[in-house]
Every structure is written in C-alpha cells, then in structure tokens.
Amino acid sequence: MNCLRRVSRTTGVAAIAEYWLIGLLILASAGCRQSVTAPQTATAYRIDGSRQAIGADERIQVLVIHYTAEDFAGSLSTLTAEQVSAHYLIPAVTRDNHGMPTALRLVDESRRAWHAGESYWRGRDHLNDTSIGIEIENGGYRRTLTGYRAVPYPPDQIALTIALSRDIIRRYHIAPGNVVGHSDIAWRRKQDPGPLFPWRQLAAAGVGIWPAQQRVSYYLGRRDPKAPVAMGGIIDRLGRYGYDVSMQLPAQLRQKAVAAFQMHFRPGDFRGLPDAETEAILDALLEIDAGQGGAR
Questions:
Q1: N or C: which end of the chain has fewer CB within 10 A?
Q2: What are phi and psi of 278, to 5 degrees?
Q3: What is the CATH number of the domain that holds 99?
Q4: CATH value at residue 274
Q5: What's the pTM value of the predicted model, to 2 decimals?
Q6: For residue 133, what pLDDT is reported?
C-alpha cells in the first residue's frame, strides 16, 4: 500500500509548503515500508566427540620453578601486581593456622601467568603460554668478598614443592626433562632457583630429571673431572638437551649458559668452565632423553 497521496503542483508560498509536505510524506512512506523482523531464537545443536584427532597434546608442557628473592609480604605484593604473576607461591613457613601445609594459588592453572618472561626450552619460546610457574619464597643470593652466598630452602618448603609439583606433573603428563628452573629457560638474565635448590632430591621423588652417577662415571671414563674440554662440544650438547644456545654466541654468553646448566646439575662448581664432568653429565642426560624417545 502506498502511503503517499498525490499533491497538486502550486506556486509561490504554497509551493514551498507543498515541498515540505512532500518531504514529510516521503519520510512517512519509508517508515511504512519497514518490515518487522521476528526475534531470533538460539539454534539447538550437539557436539559429536566420537572422533579424535591425533595431532594434539597437552597445552601445559613445562613446569618452571623460581625463587622470589623477597620475603613473604614482598613476594605476595609483587606476584599480585599487574606486571608479574605465578600460578603458585610457596611460603617459607608452609603451615597454616591449622597446621596444614599450604601453597597459595594466585592464578588458576587454566589461565596464563606472567612468570617466565622472554624464555625458551626445547624448541618452544614464550613459555608463559605453555607452562605452570611455581614461585618459592626465598631470599635468593648475594655476592660477598668471599664468594656467592645463597639462602637455603627449609625442608618443609621443599616437601610442599614436591607434593604440588607431582600433582601438576600428573595432571599434564609433563616430561621429566621439562621440569626446569627459571635459569634454564632464561639463563641470560636469571639465576633462580639457585645452586642450593635440591634438584636431585626432587628427581628422586619423581619431579624432574637427574642422571645416574654410574652413567656419568661411564662417560667420564678415566678423565679428571676438571679436565678442560672443547667449549663447542659443550654448547652442542646443551642445544640438543634443550637450552637456547648456538655456536654464534659470544664467548662470555657461552660461559654463562654453561654456568646455568652447572648450577642445576653440578652446583658445586658453576663457574661456566667447560670440563670433562660437565660433558659427562650432559651425555648421561642425553642418554635418558634418547631412551624416552627424544626431548619433548
């Protein structure tokens, strides 16, 4: 139906009025032609999960352990601000008012926390996307005139770290070689959790990896553990094990990378010097990886 009436042509003032009337009628006509849209309803559907793709794995691949280098109040303040976060914080005094060992969950495991920063491990970078981060309250280290002084970890704190880590590993099927320290994935700028963190104790409890001494001795052979070896061979092994290294690194950075590895697996001497014992430890670790089907 046409909403416009026919309007006769006139002149002068009447014509002007007529033009205004025609404009109003055109607008009214447009309104008359508008259609009314029925409200949309949600479409019912179902998900068929009977077929599963092979090309998939767990989103969480790595467990990263840190120390806070602060007391509890400072650690909590830092980790609940905007710039830095972690999934868990383990206090130095682990028991709550009821005597129960308690870790603080600061970020749900389903969400990304900002703990790793610029990082790399075994072919993956931006590890915030694929890792769980555990921060441990610890004063860190300081350098004195007599050398490096690190703060020890209380036994109860390590026991809680082991219990929590085992649950995380079980939930996400994290490979032993993917339980690492911040200094492993970001060795250029980080040294945590430091030389006093008991990686060997954790590995014995099913958290992480540690080479068997007899295999280290096998690869060491009759060499003096401190005997120098080629830095190139050490860097090659570090790269195959998972570190972000290459032969193009300046000598100072290559030594720093070796020091990060030694701090984890040979904390008695982590000066970064390429020696026979470091080479033997790497060979024993690479043997474990080969037996597990390669680095994940």
A1: N
A2: -60, -45
A3: 3.40.80.10
A4: 1.10.101.10
A5: 0.83
A6: 98
Look up tokens 């019912």; give the residue. 44
Number of folded domains that form the chain: 2
Bridge partners (DSSP) of residue 149 are 142
Query: Both 195 and 118 in a single domain?
Result: yes
| Residue 42 pLDDT | 84
Whether residue 152 sits in one domain with residue 134: yes
- From the list 110, 258, 97, the residue with the least C-alpha distance to 188 is 258
Number of other residues whose CB lies within 10 A of the CB of residue 52: 6
CA 296/CA 61 separation, integer angstroms: 8
Could you list the mean pLDDT of each consecutive 10-residue stretch along the chain, which spans 296 residues?
41 48 48 57 90 87 97 97 95 94 97 97 97 97 82 97 98 97 98 97 98 98 98 98 97 98 97 98 96 59
Asked if residue 248 is part of any domain, the answer here is yes
Question: Within a domain: residue 277?
Answer: yes
DSSP 214-254: HHHHHHHTTS-TT-B--HHHHHHHHHHHT-S--TTS-HHHH
Identify which of 165, 155, 102 has the alpha carbon closest to the alpha carbon of residue 134: 165
Question: Which residue numbers are catalytic?
Answer: 135
The pLDDT score that the predictor gives to residue 7 is 38
